[in-house]
Amino acid sequence: MNEREQPIRIVGISGSLRAGSYTRRAVERALEGAAQAGAETLLIDLRDYNLVFRDGKDEAAYPADV
Question: Can you name the residues that pair with 9 across neighbouring β-strands?
Fold first, then answer.
């Protein structure tokens, strides 16, 4: 790779809330394959954030992660 080429970056997002999620495992496997092919990878698991359903309240009423 020369100076001007940027590595491929891939982000996988898992939004399942279930423990032992098949979705998360599938995303992990896809990212493993991408990494083996030379890509930079990042897994974002939405369980790691304090997210709630948005219902139209004032934005100040929501956690910072929202």
Answer: 40
d(CA 42, CA 35): 10
Q: For the segment 52-65, what is each residue's pLDDT rounded down to a tens digit? A: 776 777 777 777 77
Q: Kindly give, in sequence order, each residue whose CB lies less than 8 Å from that of residue 15, ignoring residues fewer than 6 positions away.
A: 23, 46
Please report, in angstroms and rounded to a whole number, the separation of the first and last CA atoms in the chain.
Answer: 38
Distance CA 16, CA 65 (A): 17
Q: How many helices, marked H, and strands, marked E, lie in the chain?
A: 1, 2
Rounded CA-CA distance 44/36 in Å is 19
- Please name the residue that has the structure tokens 């399942």: 16
Classify burial at 53, counting beta carbons within 10 Å of its beta carbon; exposed 0-12, middle 13-18, buried 19 or more: exposed
